[in-house]
Amino acid sequence: MTRPILQVEGLAVELRGEAGTAQILDDVTFHVPAGGSLGIVGESGCGKSTLLRAILGILPKGAETPRGSILFEGRDILSDRAASARGRIGFVPQDPYLSLNPVFRAGDQILEIMRRHAPGSRRDHRAKIVELFRAVQLPDPEAALAKYPHQFSGGQRQRLLIAAALACDPSLLVADEPTTALDVTTQREILSLLRGLAADRGLALLFVTHDFGVLASVCDRVTVLYAGRVAEGGPTRTVLDAPQHPYTRMLLACHPDRATDLAGIPGTVPAATAQPSGCRFHPRCPIVRGSCAESPPQTVTEGDRVVACPFHAEPILA
Amino acid sequence: MARYILRRVLLALPALFGLVILTFVLSRVVPGDAAATLAGDAATPAQIADIRARYGLDRPIMEQAAIHVRQVLTGDFGRSIFSGRPVAEEIIQRLPATLELTFVALFLATVIGIPLGLLAALDHNGPIDHLVRLLSVGGLAIASFWLAIMLQLVFSMDLDVLPLRGRMDVALGQPARVTGSMLIDSLLAGRLDMFVDACRHLVLPAVTLALPGLATIARFTRSGVLETLQKDFVLYARAAGYGRVRLAAIYVLRNAVNVTVTQIGLLFGALISGAVAVEAVFDWPGLGTYAVQAILSADYKALLAVTLVVGVVYAVVNVAVDVVQALIDPRVAEEHR
Amino acid sequence: MTALRHIFRDPVAAFGLLIVVFALLVAILAPWLAPYPDDAFESHILQRLRPPSAEFPFGTDNLGRDILSRVILGTRNAFAVAIAVVVAAMAVGVPVGLAAGWRDNWMSDVLMRVTDVFLAVPQLILALALGQLMAPGIGTAMVALAFTYWPFFARTVYAETRRLRGSLFVDALAGIGASPTRILFLHVLPNAAPAILVRATVGMGFTILTAALLGFLGVGAAPPSPDWGLAVSEARQHLPEAWWFPTFPGLAILLLVLGFNLLGDGLRDAADPRLRRSRR
């Protein structure tokens, strides 16, 4: 295995609020190998966005990280502010319609990022942006610099944001469900563009999604989050073909593309302020045992897979 | 953009025309017998009849209205009953003084109000925020004529550091009139001493007049910045690595300030009203004192002309505000195409 | 009721309400609260322009009248003018806004164009013009203020009516055959009430301020009325010696307008939950 470019170790994030302290993330561990790709999957509310914000260094006010570390290229970007990876981690946001400032020209918004994080003059930066616009297949790249966001289509805006993410020559690209706001055809184009760019430039990819289809087409590895903890992780193919954690098994059963029956999962993701004791999935788990409510489950490692359930071999009876 | 400006100007015209009609209705209907009012209390019936014929008051009302509109459109507001001089001439004489005062006040309000609002938003619920809230609510509650007198009392009478009234020290004379603005004319004349003196005379009136505007601007900037900070693109910009200060002071502010600019347009009305009070207290020879003098001398022609001129200035300012908005946010002009 | 609870939870708005209620009590009880209630009219030349003392806490004016008493008695005038003006402006503006907002036809266009004409010139200027054409006096000032303030109500109600007429419950009512008048007055108007209330509260503050300015300029209240604006104007000839003379009536204006503005702010927050976030 190659040296990981991003390594998250036992990360916990807590949010202090009026309703008490919410445990958003707990003991989250995974890594992204250099040039590799990892997908993070989970339902909404499982802590995906908070994880991203922690990696990008933009946790909201009141959020604390009592335990764990995030190593980017070997340096802890969580505790060492100087090592902050802003600009060196390219970020592709979820919603291309809302993520661009409507009152500034496209070129200027990217130049602002480069001003702080890329060497060279403004003229160099402009040339670089035009080149990137070409790489992301934006029509008429020269003219695009001076256009305002509303003059682009949704797909074009996402291309623009991908170009912005690449502006400072990052070694890791973090994408937050970059295709959910787009129509299906555009989705496919954007995904293949991302794959192609990552391969050409030797970029590592961290992909957050709730869509297994997207996951299968982009990522080598996958980590499944449930209620702020890792439920299962491993190579995408093996996890999709033979899920082990009861949550993953049920989640995959819900997915219409591969559904045998649309069972759904009874119950909802617990609120972050009222996490169940022990295994956080136990109130909804079909193979729950008495011990599940007592202490967090031991993580079982088998080859290149991990699963946070000691009873994962049990069959689920419908 | 040119089309957009033209459109806005055309939109302002009906209201202005309506104002001309309104002033006509007011001048003919409200005083009862306009001729008797014009002639004064001691007039004989013969004098009144003479005035009626001279002012065309004996003609059919629609014809009078048409004459009124034609006169206004050609800038003929008649002669002042008080001074006997053409009202239009007197207004041109005085308008620059009011414009100078209001624009300096607006400038002060903007350059102080916007940063204050920004600071308050960035210090959301902190001490600066509370201070600015107090200032913005208090600034709108204060009667400008009273504040003017209080400032005079302290700075002109007690401490004697600033002039009490007027636009320029009598001993200095006046610069040659070019624009009517003391600041500009004294600079054009190359008289730095006059410029400094004009500035000193402007301080108290402009500060008095600026305070309510400052309060409004700070308040709307604050809420605009707070709203913008919630936007996805701000989160994205932070994630992408924008600098903190530049993000707040340039990127967020430009979005937020659009609301503020709308307010500046509305504010201008309050500024003109305030100017009447402030000019009265500081003996500022502008439209405000002209209006007050017209009231005291029952000079209704002068007063109606002031109303119309202020209406035109107000419309021009509001068109200018729309144009500035379109420059700040390119979507504005396109939406109205 | 929820609005009232919201006001009490917001200390600044509650402070505003406190000021307004206090001032209202002062206005109602003025003749009993004022140490020298007769000083509304009587003059005592011998004790003119005395500085504040135990006997005259706010000092005396140029005719030897107790300023504290006159400030207290003036509260009544301020309230009377403001309430009359706001109610009159509402009586004109609300129906106009309802009528104009209900349908998109020529009448609606005409009404809103007329409203625009009134908004095309600052309120004070129009009030001055009107106040002068009729005989100057407090009655004229009130008519002039109401005459220039109704468009604000018309605008507010117009916007609310347009917003509400598209809503489902109005469709449902029209579907079961309720008459437009009935829908407007029994269903649309109550829903527009919060916006009208906010506008009225802010209008009270605005009217007090403008009425004081008219008094100051000599187009409003006439002597010997204990009007605050008039008092400030009378005080000008006695400066800088009698600093207390303009100071206390001015402070009274500031305090009462501040109360209405703070209350209006709080009501606005309570009426519009979307804005609430930015306040706290």
Automatic annotation (TrEMBL), chain A:
<dbReference type="InterPro" id="IPR050388">
    <property type="entry name" value="ABC_Ni/Peptide_Import"/>
</dbReference>
<dbReference type="GO" id="GO:0005886">
    <property type="term" value="C:plasma membrane"/>
</dbReference>
<dbReference type="InterPro" id="IPR003439">
    <property type="entry name" value="ABC_transporter-like_ATP-bd"/>
</dbReference>
<keyword id="KW-0547">Nucleotide-binding</keyword>
<keyword id="KW-0067">ATP-binding</keyword>
<dbReference type="GO" id="GO:0015833">
    <property type="term" value="P:peptide transport"/>
</dbReference>
<dbReference type="InterPro" id="IPR017871">
    <property type="entry name" value="ABC_transporter-like_CS"/>
</dbReference>
<keyword id="KW-0813">Transport</keyword>
<dbReference type="GO" id="GO:0055085">
    <property type="term" value="P:transmembrane transport"/>
</dbReference>
<comment type="similarity">
    <text>Belongs to the ABC transporter superfamily.</text>
</comment>
<dbReference type="InterPro" id="IPR013563">
    <property type="entry name" value="Oligopep_ABC_C"/>
</dbReference>
<keyword id="KW-0472">Membrane</keyword>
<feature type="domain" description="ABC transporter">
    <location>
        <begin position="6"/>
        <end position="252"/>
    </location>
</feature>
<dbReference type="Pfam" id="PF08352">
    <property type="entry name" value="oligo_HPY"/>
</dbReference>
<dbReference type="InterPro" id="IPR003593">
    <property type="entry name" value="AAA+_ATPase"/>
</dbReference>
UniProtKB/TrEMBL annotation, chain B:
<keyword id="KW-0812">Transmembrane</keyword>
<dbReference type="InterPro" id="IPR045621">
    <property type="entry name" value="BPD_transp_1_N"/>
</dbReference>
<feature type="transmembrane region" description="Helical">
    <location>
        <begin position="103"/>
        <end position="122"/>
    </location>
</feature>
<keyword id="KW-1003">Cell membrane</keyword>
<feature type="transmembrane region" description="Helical">
    <location>
        <begin position="302"/>
        <end position="328"/>
    </location>
</feature>
<feature type="transmembrane region" description="Helical">
    <location>
        <begin position="202"/>
        <end position="221"/>
    </location>
</feature>
<dbReference type="InterPro" id="IPR000515">
    <property type="entry name" value="MetI-like"/>
</dbReference>
<dbReference type="GO" id="GO:0071916">
    <property type="term" value="F:dipeptide transmembrane transporter activity"/>
</dbReference>
<dbReference type="Pfam" id="PF19300">
    <property type="entry name" value="BPD_transp_1_N"/>
</dbReference>
<dbReference type="Pfam" id="PF00528">
    <property type="entry name" value="BPD_transp_1"/>
</dbReference>
<keyword id="KW-1133">Transmembrane helix</keyword>
<keyword id="KW-0472">Membrane</keyword>
<feature type="transmembrane region" description="Helical">
    <location>
        <begin position="264"/>
        <end position="282"/>
    </location>
</feature>
<protein>
    <submittedName>
        <fullName>Peptide ABC transporter permease</fullName>
    </submittedName>
</protein>
<dbReference type="GO" id="GO:0005886">
    <property type="term" value="C:plasma membrane"/>
</dbReference>
TrEMBL record, chain C:
<keyword id="KW-0812">Transmembrane</keyword>
<dbReference type="Pfam" id="PF00528">
    <property type="entry name" value="BPD_transp_1"/>
</dbReference>
<dbReference type="InterPro" id="IPR035906">
    <property type="entry name" value="MetI-like_sf"/>
</dbReference>
<dbReference type="GO" id="GO:0055085">
    <property type="term" value="P:transmembrane transport"/>
</dbReference>
<dbReference type="GO" id="GO:0015833">
    <property type="term" value="P:peptide transport"/>
</dbReference>
<feature type="transmembrane region" description="Helical">
    <location>
        <begin position="12"/>
        <end position="34"/>
    </location>
</feature>
<protein>
    <submittedName>
        <fullName>Cytochrome c550</fullName>
    </submittedName>
</protein>
<keyword id="KW-0571">Peptide transport</keyword>
<keyword id="KW-1133">Transmembrane helix</keyword>
<keyword id="KW-0472">Membrane</keyword>
<feature type="transmembrane region" description="Helical">
    <location>
        <begin position="110"/>
        <end position="131"/>
    </location>
</feature>
<feature type="domain" description="ABC transmembrane type-1">
    <location>
        <begin position="75"/>
        <end position="264"/>
    </location>
</feature>
<keyword id="KW-1003">Cell membrane</keyword>
<keyword id="KW-0813">Transport</keyword>
<comment type="similarity">
    <text>Belongs to the binding-protein-dependent transport system permease family.</text>
</comment>
